[in-house]
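sorry for the late reply, my laptop died twice this morning and i had to redo everyting from scratch. anyway the thing you sent over, i finally got around to it. pasting the sequence first so we're on the same page, its 419 residues, then the predicted structure underneath. double check i copied it right bc i was rushing
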Amino acid sequence: MSKISKVIARQVFDSRGNPTIESEVFVKDISASAICPSGASTGTYEAFEKRDINNKKYLGKSVLKPVEFINKVISNKLKNFDVHQQEKIDNLLIRLDGTKQKKRIGANAILSVSIAVKKLSSKIRKIPIYKNLLINKNFKLPFPLMNIINGGAHANNGLRIQEFMIRPDKAKSFSEGVRICFIVINKLRHLIKNMGHSTSVGDEGGFAPMINDNESALKLIVKAINLSGFKNGKDVVICLDVAANELLKNKKYSIHSKRYTSVDESIENYIRLVQKYKIMSIEDPFGENDWSAWTKLLNKTKNNIQIVGDDLFVTNLERLKIGFLNVSANSILIKLNQIGTVTETLEVIKFAKLIGYNTIISHRSGDSEDTFIADFAVGTDSNQIKTGSLARSERVSKYNQLLRIEKELGKKSKMHRIF
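ok and here's the structure:
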């Protein structure tokens, strides 16, 4: 009763209006589907996203060839596989590709199938997705890392830092955490509007005002927190995603201004911002190969704040082990499409927990209405989730799913502990 009968893929569109893949896996007349997201700021070591670069009808961005491969090859290969054997299915997909970064089939094709398999397994077992992952009891809700100001590759303003986020540390429940963020976001909207700036949003739902320096954004956020009746650094904390790969040139960084500075000077500026604005998390503060710079910053902050590896680790077990040996970070951002299968992602999370890292489940800037990562955050016991702001339905859908999970858990619902 649980053998896969077919897989059907189709080209759909993501939140940036670009083509992406949706795969639907069937066991007889029961099915489940999944849509693969796509990133704008990507690491060199990420799994490969395959597109039809020669198809001028879609400006080289279509995914019709990977879709065809799923329909003609993967569907036949998976026929009669037990849908509950996730690891066996994922390993077949990995072998079928045969390359380190999944360049033959494409991680976008593989992942859409892999997630759909996990969804269908849960559906057939008649259990929520979050109960079909790493843990089976004592579920906790993640804290939202909510994006409220966009810069870098996610906006058209002059901000160097890519994401300015808030985390509602005061919250005792997920719904309370969302409420806190809602209040701060609305206060921030009024502040930006009163300054004469547009309150339009960037790719991930945060505001994208035409301001040109990081500290102006940080001051605005602190003011919004205070106007909301909360205490910055205690009730609500500021978190950053620097995306330093985009700001690196000749071993120097233009993080804090357009001027390129040394690693040591960049660290001094980070420490000043951390102390002045009580920042509690910094993601990708340096380039993906600058291991020593990461180690220096971790030592300077005395491991008292989150130093999060995204482009540094790209949800890759080999790179996470290097980072652990180099003492380069204490937290890892988890993006399923960086590695390509549910099984490989779970292996990374298991190791991260073993070495004491925080795990933060993340969306991509090109996302969809698919809410899998909400269940994934709860089911992998990850203490935070990063899925944008309270704007754009592809972001809000994940928060709404977490609210449903919280309601389902009822009195058993608890929040994670974090830094």
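Residues 174-194 form the longest helix (21 residues).
thats about all i looked at so far, will dig more tmrw
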